[in-house]
């Protein structure tokens, strides 16, 4: 074993190299000619927004997908054939954000998962334990190799994964957002290990949303945007602002212009057609009072918020910042531990989606596959699932024709493309499925619409249509919108935007169009000039300077630490 | 409450509605045709069985034989309706066979005198039937609460429950069989209108009633939504837990009615009825042959009824053909396997129904 984990001799040839990588998924060009080099003994930080192509690049480098064109080389030699998993693992190993250890197996079994040493056809347990201990000792990890991984902390599981990679003989590590689930002290220890690994000649690709981490441990930085590496260079020669500018890029998205137009149109409609909605602006429709909740999707801490009738309020932040948790609480889809949610002055019971629906809260859930629709049932039935009590006649019986008739205007307004109201929603495209989910939320004519990442995984046309429809409905009916999203583009339809950091209100933007660089900085917990900002807990003031450009989307990461510059 | 679609019905929306309705007509016809083909898929199998039956025994194609089949399959059929409802919400209940045995046993025990191993309370048979329904409802409630509120695994909960129920069934009469049941108690299982058994009529009414309920009632539709995607049904504001527990209770009541029919048919309640006969396997087989998915959200009453009839006819032919007793179970199991394979090959999996 020891010779396999000795530092690599040749510093001249790159440990891993990607040359001219192109990759297309359907009509989406995920990577357009990416050249990336990982040198032994150096750590390269890869940053970019969601959808920029980071995960596609990681998948191609770790042999999960083939590239359409271009070449991957390890130590100057071509990569092994795609199906040969063990050969790939000998060259490069990926430690994913979410732990991939098997909880029921011991540390030693996990380290040697799938390639246990054998003797006479049986697993050689003693050798497996000895080699694992040896690897652990070599890298200064202190873990009892005979205990099951279920007993380990998140940090220790990560160590097991790194040890697994090293025991496989690899000289090249991909760390995909490794700090996401770690506490601050564990992050410091991880960084020490990364420095030790690079010092011994291992090449590391470090993927993170936290720019300060990149500056702390990476020698080189690469920025990926829209499938291209737009900036590569030594970290010492770059500033945080350089990286943010490169990540955001010049701004030419047609969708954004469309959305701005849609929002403007909606505002005009509201101004002319629905003065009633603006008349009682003094009384808030939705009041969130000091709400706190624990949730795997990010906790919420003592957050308060008021939304007026007809107002469109965006909530954004990193994924772990509690954005979707807050929205789920308002929709009654998740419980909260303390605080109150009031609609029109009446308290909504925590975690009661059925009562929230009847009180007038429409809900577009975050994950449409999981919560949005019933795949076997038809378009009309899914779209009218929230109003079966309206459609039912005597004793709760309802006619399929009444259902189709009720669904027709919704289907028309949202341009749902289907073979008819009886076509199972499971057969539709993702965009149309999301439109059916939106129809279901809008069918009951809600007074408050809670939408969580309504445009995620949706094509550009459906995206602008969905947002325009949300804007139109709020303008015409006076309904309020709570839009929780990490896609900053979507916030263009909002009247104001709240940024959450670690479950607390951090900043509020009240003047559309919103400056997306300021938004991105705020989601990271820093103010525009790069200094750490203080949370504005319970203080709805502190508007950020509004720039000329509407916002773009940002990345998200479930991390509660490391958001302030160190 | 306003009717949705009334307000803001612009020209665009009307155009959309016209288009959608035009498509609906075509689609409905197609859907109906497709589902008919699927339902009819088991018809050729049935025809083949009838031909086989005709050659197996001259007694097969007679009114009295079919009347007998009707009587035999009714008890199974009612229980299959209960199990199908539970399968549709994505659940599973093995204890229906326990209820099928225990509920009539408790009811008969309250009626029959001490000398004939009863409790001696000499309860009126009408009240005893109410007790029978209450036993079914109580066990269903307990199952529902343990599975849905207690978040226990339905398979294990109902497996344990069915063994407990079977033990109670033997325990209260110390293993004896209860005979001499009053006429009111055996009426449902043994009486007939001419050649048509009462139990068959009642079972048919239950199939049609539940079928219409599933197809057209909002709670029936909610059952499909819950079984098809529990989280989506919850997010749509459906009271999922209330409906799921209600379905377990309904299943228990239907199994108790099935048990009453069986007790009436054989004019006795034995310790074997239900669990020791292993009827739950026939119940599952009939439901699954009829296209009710074990994963929930898919299946209907027409299919379930076809499955029940198919099993009944096979059983009848084996009886008439004097198949050696030792071999009957092997043949029975083989037929169920073949029917399952046929149902899988012929029946598509496009829609919930």
Architecture overview:
The complex is a heterodimer of chains A (566) and B (353). Among the domains of chain A are: 14-101 and 170-248, Rossmann fold (3-Layer(aba) Sandwich); 102-151, no CATH class. Helices cover 33% and strands 21% of the residues of chain A. A 6-stranded mixed sheet of chain A has the order 6-9-10-3-11-12, sandwiched between helices. Chain A is globular and about 75 Å long. With 353 residues, chain B is mainly alpha-helical. Chain B is built from 14 helices and 2 strands; from the N terminus they run H-H-H-H-H-H-H-E-E-H-H-H-H-H-H-H. In chain B, strand 1 (192-193) and strand 2 form a beta hairpin. Chain B is globular, with a radius of gyration of 22 Å. Chain B starts with 10 loop residues before the first helix and ends in a 7-residue tail after the last helix. The model of chain B is unreliable at 1-30 (pLDDT under 50).
Oligomeric description of these chains:
heterodimer
Termini distance of chain B?
A: 31 Å
The CATH H-level superfamily of the domain at 14-101 and 170-248 in chain A is P-loop containing nucleotide triphosphate hydrolases
Q: Which overall shape of chain B is indicated by the principal axes computed on the Cα atoms?
A: globular
The secondary-structure class of chain A comes to alpha/beta
Distance between the termini of chain A: 38 Å
**Helix share, percent of chain A:** 25-40%
Give the integer mean of the pLDDT values of chain A. Answer: 80
Gyration radius of chain A, rounded: 26 Å
Instruction: Report the count of strand segments of chain A.
Output: 22
- In terms of per-residue confidence, which ranges of chain B show pLDDT below 50 for 5 or more consecutive residues? 1-30
Reported by name, the CATH topology of the domain at 14-101 and 170-248 in chain A is Rossmann fold
What is the CATH-assigned architecture of the domain at 14-101 and 170-248 in chain A? Answer: 3-Layer(aba) Sandwich
Compute the average pLDDT of chain B. 86
SSE order of chain B, one letter for each helix or strand: HHHHHHHEEHHHHHHH
């Amino acid at each position: 074993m020891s010779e396999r984990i000795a530092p690599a001799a040749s510093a001249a040839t790159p440990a891993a190299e990607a040359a001219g990588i192109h990759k297309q998924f359907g009509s989406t060009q995920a990577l357009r000619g990416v050249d990336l080099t990982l040198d032994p003994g150096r750590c390269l930080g890869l940053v970019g927004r969601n959808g920029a192509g980071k995960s596609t690049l990681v998948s191609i480098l770790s042999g999960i997908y083939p590239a359409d064109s271009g070449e991957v080389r390890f130590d100057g030699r071509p990569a092994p054939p795609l199906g040969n998993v063990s050969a790939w693992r000998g060259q490069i190993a990926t430690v994913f954000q979410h732990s991939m250890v098997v909880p029921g197996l011991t540390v030693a079994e996990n380290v040697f998962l799938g390639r246990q040493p054998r003797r006479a056809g049986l697993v050689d347990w003693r050798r497996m334990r000895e080699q694992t201990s040896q690897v652990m000792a070599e890298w200064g990890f202190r873990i009892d190799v005979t205990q099951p991984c279920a007993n380990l902390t998140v940090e220790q599981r990560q160590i097991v994964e790194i040890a697994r990679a090293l025991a496989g003989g690899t000289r090249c590590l991909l760390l995909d957002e490794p700090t996401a689930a770690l506490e601050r002290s564990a992050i410091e220890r991880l960084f020490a290990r990364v420095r030790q690994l690079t010092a011994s000649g291992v090449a590391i690709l470090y993927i993170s949303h936290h720019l300060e981490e990149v500056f702390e441990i990476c020698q080189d930085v690469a920025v990926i945007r829209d499938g291209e590496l737009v900036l590569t260079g030594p970290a010492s020669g770059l500033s945080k602002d350089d990286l943010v500018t490169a990540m955001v890029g010049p701004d030419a998205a047609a969708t954004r212009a469309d959305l701005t137009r849609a929002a403007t149109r909606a505002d005009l409609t509201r101004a002319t057609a629905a003065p009633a909605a603006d008349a009682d602006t003094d009384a808030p429709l939705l009041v969130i009072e000091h709400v706190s909740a624990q949730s795997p999707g990010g906790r919420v801490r003592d957050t308060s918020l008021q939304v007026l009738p007809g107002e469109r309020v965006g909530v954004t932040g990193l994924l772990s910042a509690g954005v979707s948790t807050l929205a789920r609480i308002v929709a009654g889809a998740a419980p909260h531990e303390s605080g109150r949610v009031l609609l029109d002055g009446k308290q909504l019971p925590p975690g009661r989606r059925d009562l929230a629906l009847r009180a007038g809260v429409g809900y577009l859930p975050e994950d449409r596959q999981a919560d949005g629709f019933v795949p076997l049932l038809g378009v009309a039935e899914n779209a009218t699932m929230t109003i079966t009590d309206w459609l039912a006649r005597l004793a709760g019986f309802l006619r399929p024709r009444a259902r189709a008739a009720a669904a027709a205007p919704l289907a028309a307004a949202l341009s749902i493309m289907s073979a008819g109201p009886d076509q199972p929603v499971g057969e539709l495209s993702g965009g149309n499925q999301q439109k059916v989910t939106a129809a279901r939320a809008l069918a009951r004519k809600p007074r408050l619409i809670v939408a969580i990442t309504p445009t995620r995984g949706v094509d550009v046309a459906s995206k602008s249509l969905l947002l325009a429809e949300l804007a139109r409905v709020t303008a015409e009916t006076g309904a309020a919108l709570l839009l929780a999203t990490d896609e900053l583009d979507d916030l263009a339809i909002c009247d104001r935007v709240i940024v959450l950091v670690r479950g607390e209100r951090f900043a509020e933007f009240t003047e559309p169009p919103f400056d997306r660089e300021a938004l991105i900085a705020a989601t990271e917990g820093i103010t525009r000039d790069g200094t750490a900002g203080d949370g504005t807990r319970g203080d709805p003031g502190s508007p950020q300077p509004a720039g000329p450009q509407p916002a773009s989307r940002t990345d998200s990461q479930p991390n509660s630490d490391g958001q302030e510059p160190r | 409450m306003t009717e949705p679609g009334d307000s803001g019905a612009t020209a665009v929306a009307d155009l959309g509605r016209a288009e959608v309705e035009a498509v609906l007509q075509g689609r409905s016809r197609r859907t109906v045709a497709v589902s008919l083909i699927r339902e009819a898929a088991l018809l050729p199998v049935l025809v083949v069985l009838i031909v086989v039956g005709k050659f197996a025994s001259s007694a097969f194609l007679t009114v009295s034989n079919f009347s007998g089949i009707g009587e035999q399959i009714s008890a199974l059929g009612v229980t299959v309706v209960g199990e199908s409802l539970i399968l549709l919400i994505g659940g599973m209940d093995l204890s229906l066979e326990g209820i099928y045995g225990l509920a009539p046993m408790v009811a008969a025990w309250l009626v029959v005198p001490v000398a004939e191993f009863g409790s001696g309370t000499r309860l009126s048979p009408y009240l005893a039937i109410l007790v029978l329904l209450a036993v079914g409802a109580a066990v269903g409630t307990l199952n529902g609460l343990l599975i849905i509120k207690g978040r226990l695994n339905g398979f294990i909960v109902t497996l344990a429950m069915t063994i407990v129920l079977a033990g109670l069934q033997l325990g209260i009469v110390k293993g004896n069989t209860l005979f001499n049941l009053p006429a009111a108690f055996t009426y449902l299982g043994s009486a007939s209108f001419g050649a048509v058994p009462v139990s068959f009529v009642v079972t048919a009414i239950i199939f049609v009633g539940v079928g219409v309920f599933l197809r057209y009632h909002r709670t029936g539709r909610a059952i499909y939504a819950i079984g098809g995607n529990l989280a989506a049904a919850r997010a749509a504001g459906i009271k999922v837990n209330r409906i799921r527990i209600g379905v377990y209770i309904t299943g228990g009541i239907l199994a108790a009615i099935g048990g009453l029919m069986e007790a009436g048919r054989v004019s006795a309640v034995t310790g074997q009825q239900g669990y020791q006969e292993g009827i739950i396997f026939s119940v599952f087989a009939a439901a699954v042959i009829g296209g009710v998915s074990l994963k929930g959200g898919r299946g209907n009453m027409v299919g379930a009824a076809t499955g029940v009839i198919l099993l009944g006819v096979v059983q009848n032919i084996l009886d008439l053909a004097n198949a050696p007793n030792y071999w009957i179970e092997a043949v029975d199991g083989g037929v169920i396997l073949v029917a399952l394979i046929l149902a899988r090959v012929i029946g598509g999996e496009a829609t919930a129904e």
